[in-house]
């Protein structure tokens, strides 16, 4: 069963470019993962501090493997200091 993930991140105003750089690196590397069906990063038109990921994973195991990748671990370590609020993450299935 495919896993659909939406993540919403709100950067601190002074950290927008630092966050975008980390997110761009994640996109570049994640799209190479076998379990990744879709990995899109969007930047809000209304609020420059808001970034949104739309992801589709082949399986929960694939998503779990993704979360162990070094570039994701770097994200987990560095990004909390760049965010205004903790990231909002929603897991779903297609209905």
TrEMBL record:
Its domain of life?
Answer: Bacteria
Molecular functions per Gene Ontology:
monooxygenase activity
In terms of Gene3D superfamilies, this protein maps to:
3.30.70.100
Q: Which Pfam families match?
A: ABM
Can you name this protein? Antibiotic biosynthesis monooxygenase
Which InterPro entries did the record assign?
ABM_dom, AI-2_Isomerase_LsrG, Dimeric_a/b-barrel
Q: Which UniProt keywords apply?
A: Monooxygenase, Oxidoreductase
Q: Which residues form the ABM domain?
A: 3-91
